[in-house]
Amino acid sequence: MVNYPRRLQLARLPTPLTPLTRFKIPGVDAEIWIKRDEVTGTEVSGNKIRKLEFNLADASEQGCNTVITCGGIQSNHCRATAVMGARLGLKVHLLLRGEEPEVSTGNLLMDYLCGAEVTFIPENEWSGHAEYAARLQDSYASHGDRALFIPIGASDEVGLWGYIAACEELKEDFAQHGLTPDYLVTATGSGGTQAGLIVGSQLFDLPAEVRAFNVSDSASYFDRKIREDVLLWKQRYNMEIDEKALDIQTVEGYLGEAYGVAGPEIFDLIAELGRTEGLLLDPVYTGKAFYGMVSELAKGEAGRLPGARQVVFVHTGGLFGLFPQQHGFAFN
Question: What are the structural domains of the chain?
Fold first, then answer.
């Protein structure tokens, strides 16, 4: 029995677990199932809302009326925070990496529609964004407001609970469908979903091993980040888990040119899944991770998913990121 901290009921849960029936990988017999976390709620679709259920509850407990958070210009996490801030009556201030675009599309448009304050920080100054956030907190305090800073992706010891809780949900999914998956596959960008799945798999004794495909940073970065977050989680919530024994496996090689930049093979795969399954991925997170999973499954025993008979891919959302990159599809 896991004792969760306070949590707001923001997401539409449980999300479905459904098999792919028409998409096939030549020479591969493994079943692929999709944990449909892109349908956690239309405006806040994706994995971020699971974490924010705990982060925003923490803001409430601390008596905060303002939330400061950060990410890329098309950050799914920032958009989810802006939407939920509006619903909960919280001020939201977003720090976005890069220059302000001439046209606001996708997630950025939704940030503005939900009334978020937006500050753009140039790439060459981004390393100081946490210090900028601290100064903002002081500024808000001087006007009588209390602001909580949530890091990129809500990936900290509080947000970790989001995918720990998801693992409890997955255990029920597996029992309902009679599944014993070999692997749980996810994209990893800020490490929080990956960390929660790893910890939750231990706590709820899931049969599947977690494999994460990086869409930013390196495997060594995620190893360090996850161990740090889990240690903080243990200390803050007095939980028992051996963070040194965590099975952190991040598969490299599918990042492409850079974070947020996808090659034609990713756009082709996204379009194929749309045609065959009505499943929509994005070119920043899920498209790259799904492509990596397919590529590793095709390698058989020589790949990073050896012995795979059943694989569960966690669809972490990001659908609004399709629109700013629609030029990447061949039919345009």
Answer: 17-47+156-328 (3.40.50.1100), 48-154 (3.40.50.1100)
Structural tokens at position 80: 């989810």
SS3 letters for 252-284?
CCCCCCECCECCHHHHHHHHHHHHHHCCCCCCC
How far is residue 279 CA from its own chain's centroid? 17
State pTM to two decimals.
Answer: 0.96
Label residue 245 exposed, middle or buried (CB < 10 Å: 0-12, 13-18, 19+). exposed
pLDDT tens digits along 301-321 = 999 999 999 999 999 999 998
Determine the pLDDT at residue 42. 74
Whether the CA torsion 194, 199, 200, 206 is positive or negative: it is positive
- Determine contact, residues 148/124, Cβ cutoff 8 Å: no
Tokens 């448009």 appear where? 109
Active site residues: 75
3-state SS class at 290: helix
Classified as helix, coil or strand, 222 is helix
Cα–Cα dist 154/105, whole Å:
23
Cα separation, 114 vs 216, in Å, equals 28
Residue 92 makes CB contacts below 8 A (sequence gap 6+) with: 66, 67, 68, 69, 81, 82, 85, 86, 114, 115, 116, 117
pLDDT of residue 332: 56
Q: How far is CA 248 from the centre of its chain?
A: 16
Q: What is the pLDDT of residues 221-279, one digit of tens each?
A: 999 999 999 999 999 999 988 888 899 999 999 999 999 999 999 999 999 999 999 99
Query: Could you read off the pLDDT of 77-109 as tens digits, one per residue?
Result: 999 999 999 999 999 999 999 999 999 999 999
